[in-house]
Amino acid sequence: MNVTDSLAELAALDRVGLVERWAVVFNHPAPRHAQVGLLRGALAWRLQMEAIAGAGRADRLVRSLRHSTAGAAHTVTLSPGTRLLREWQGQTHHVTVLSSGFEYAGRTWRSLTAISREITGTAWSGPLFFGLRS
Hints:
Blueprint (H helix, E strand, L loop, with lengths): L2 H10 L2 H12 L9 H18 L1 H15 L13 E6 L2 E8 L2 E4 L2 E3 L2 H9 L5 H4 L5
Antiparallel strand pairs: 1-2, 2-3, 3-4
């Protein structure tokens, strides 16, 4: 089967079919909450890589990418003036990014983690609490 036919076959698969194909192609279960577009796009990319470079080189590239991104933190840069909103237990909390720190509840804070601790009463990662990291 040529690449065009294989891509057309991918386009016709539903989510269940894409998840099954993912497990076969990547020898690993598909991410649990991955959207259909991501599954289809990654499988299409892999198909095209195999067509261009051959299966062995595509396998090495996938292993290399998996290794290089394992545990990598995704950093979000916040510009001064950015407003963060978080609803917690029915109350909306507003944080403004300053040039050095954050403003919350009329006070200046050094970190989002300190603010999240103030809001929740527990040790919670500030970037995680405000949705800046997953």
